[in-house]
Amino acid sequence: MPPPTIQQIFQAAVAHHQAGRLAQAEKLYRQVLSLEPRHAEAMHYLGALATQGGRHDIAVELIRQSIALNPHSAVAHSNLAVALRENGQLEGAIAAAQIAVALDPEFPEAHNTLGVTLKLNRQNEQAIAAFAQAITLRPHYPEALSNLGNVLRDVGRLNEAVEAFHRAIALNPNHAKAHNNLGVTLRDQGRLDEAIAAFRRVIELQPELVATHSNLVYLMHYHPGYDAKTIVAELRAWNRLHAEPLKPHIQAWPNDPDPKRRLRIGFVSPDFRNHVVGRNLLPLFGEFDRQRFEIICYAQVLRPDEITAPFQQCAAAWRTIVGVSDEQVARQIRQDRIDILVDLSLHSAQNRLLLFARKPAPVQATFAGYPGSTGLTAIDYRLSDPYLDPPDMDESVYSERTVRLPDTFWCYDPLDCSDIPVNALPALEIASITFGCLNNFCKVNDTMLAIWAEVLRQVRGSRLLLLAKQGDHRERTLAFLAGQGVEAGRVEFLDPRARRRYLELYHRIDLGLDSFPYNGHTTSLDSFWMGVPVVTLVGQTAVARAGWCQLSNLGLTELAAGDREQFVRIATELANDIPRLSELRATLRERMERSPLMDAPRFARNIEAAFREMWRTWCNGGG
């Protein structure tokens, strides 16, 4: 029997590749190239395989070599766009996808690739057009429909987004990503039960999709039907399924166990940018004692912005980890001799928890994303405070040991919006009270709406301002409130907007009504900064005690309620006390400035003391 030809070997490689047998495919592609080094297709598909394996630098190099041999391959340019995008090179990815479309305008995958890349670059209208063209060319294209839904969600067209996801799922009921994207959009609409069901469907279809499982556990914090014990059970399931299998990667650390030496602190985050977490962290980073602590940032930041640069200036080293595998980042952290590695995301978007599961540093902690637990046994500590987690709280709901900062979990700074003034109480001009809640709409649920409705009924002529994207969730909310005796004309919905315009909305609000069970966090701090007090309901989970923490630090605990009846009483009495409201309006900003909530040096010293104690414990064999 004659030996197989180069073409036969290549066809066998492609068959293995399509069947998901990637190791066999790679071996055969390399065999083809050993026999014919200028085989453009083998080089191209070897690059595509590298993209699948997360080796994006190698993928880019191989596909570019293939294009040099065959510059007219639309498929190669499209796959180069994918590799560049995954490597964080958005401009190059857009250019490659545009070449693919120009070479073959009838190639739907190229239009879809272009759309995904444009969306990541926030060119949303162009992305919508690209997805629409892909769907025109191939009407039964669930991937493009799901991607179209994503960008429609981004621009606030939630009903259309939901419709696109349903169309994708109708074409492919097992399309896990479409179910996940549907869940995210349903969450935005406040349809939490449906969102949770969508996430659970994904977990049934593809249990390995770790990001969806994170979406589920994070969303459970927002739902009034889930207590801390239910949440921790899901967190433990997450750890068991995704993190525990990585234990074999854990190795000994070469770090010098000197409790007094300068420490290398690594921070991992996608939010070193204009994001709520980034804005909260920047005051801390600016105050670290550089003589005692060396800061290294591992940045999962696809689009750096005006907030990114100050973080880079604060860091002794800046590592971009976009497109870099968890295993590669773990090796880098070991090479950097990080003493304490800090997660700043928990289960929020783009987290790198599987990096922490590999335990690349001897001490690991979580902080800042939100006050909760990761569920990872590989993370040793979580930072909190005495108000979020009183000493008598049940700490069995956390996998980490709780370290309480003395004052507060948050450090606030308005940054470039510090010049926005506090205005006079709006009620003095319009002779009626305006309540407001500018939290993410997914925090708004029927339980809280019923409490707010009771407040509105008791305060004659009062109005309510809510922040929400366009969609029928607005009409559902109005219908629910109407059933509670609140006319639709007393409720106004406001579109989400850029930060400065968002802060200016507080000029219209007399009194804030907090959400529950997920209180306002930075949103409430914004409210206080703008002179608007917030009445809060205190719960049992840490996220439900944010209002209590902030009011305690402001010396305004009289605005915190222990139950529904007390919440209604506090809100109605304060709404009817115009002199008190006016006095709070005039003095809240100064209260903020004098409080621990805005004392960045004090906050930094407290964080540093916590890190030092963690390190001392490890040096003494207690890590």
Describe this structure in words.
- It is a single chain.
- Helix 5 runs parallel beside helix 7 and helix 10 packs antiparallel against helix 11.
- Helix content is 52%, strand content 9%.
- It has 623 residues and is an alpha/beta fold.
- The strands form two sheets. Strands 3-2-1-4-5-6-7 form a seven-stranded parallel sheet, with helices on one face. A six-stranded parallel sheet has the order 10-9-8-11-12-13, sandwiched between helices.
- It folds into three domains: 183 residues, Tetratricopeptide repeat domain (Serine Threonine Protein Phosphatase 5, Tetratricopeptide repeat); 159 residues, Rossmann fold (3-Layer(aba) Sandwich); 184 residues, Glycogen Phosphorylase B (Rossmann fold).
Summarize the structure.
With 623 residues, this protein is α/β, with parallel strands linked by helices. The chain has helices at residues 6-18, 22-35, 40-52, 56-69, 74-86, 90-103, 108-120, 124-137, 142-154, 158-171, 176-188, 192-205, 210-220, 228-243, 276-287, 308-314, 326-335, 353-357, 426-430, 446-458, 472-483, 499-504, 522-529, 546-554, 564-575, 578-594, 600-619; strands at 263-269, 293-299, 317-320, 340-343, 363-366, 381-384, 401-404, 434-437, 463-467, 491-494, 511-513, 534-537, 560-561. The protein has 3 domains: 6-188, Alpha Horseshoe (Serine Threonine Protein Phosphatase 5, Tetratricopeptide repeat); 253-411, Rossmann fold, CATH 3.40.50.11380; 415-598, Rossmann fold (3-Layer(aba) Sandwich), CATH 3.40.50.2000.
